[in-house]
Amino acid sequence: MAFKRYRGLPQGEVTVEEFRAWLSQFDADHNGRISREELQSALRSLNVWFAWWKARDGVRAADANRDGAVGGDDEVGRLFAFAQQHLHVKIAQLGYY
């Protein structure tokens, strides 16, 4: 079994671009969208407790078209807001996020 090593989320305040680049590491099927399972892997890499639950809540909060994945600028913006509010990730306010 091979283990993939992921780059961690930078400490302190991160920019939207850094957050997006970090999150893109977990896009297992390379479709440009983050599923609940992929978000769960991202949260586990941060040693977040109840990662499956928080991933479910994150996708529910961000998935505007209810297709089960987060993709597109609007939905990613919603995921940024969820991460700030519920995961205590400090994201620099750049652009319209």
Automatic annotation (TrEMBL):
The keyword Calcium applies. The lineage of its organism: Eukaryota, Viridiplantae, Streptophyta, Embryophyta, Tracheophyta. Gene3D superfamilies: EF-hand (1.10.238.10). This is EF-hand domain-containing protein. GO terms for molecular function: calcium ion binding. SMART domains: EFh (SM00054). Pfam families: EF-hand_6. Residues 14-49 form the EF-hand domain. SUPFAM superfamilies: EF-hand (SSF47473).
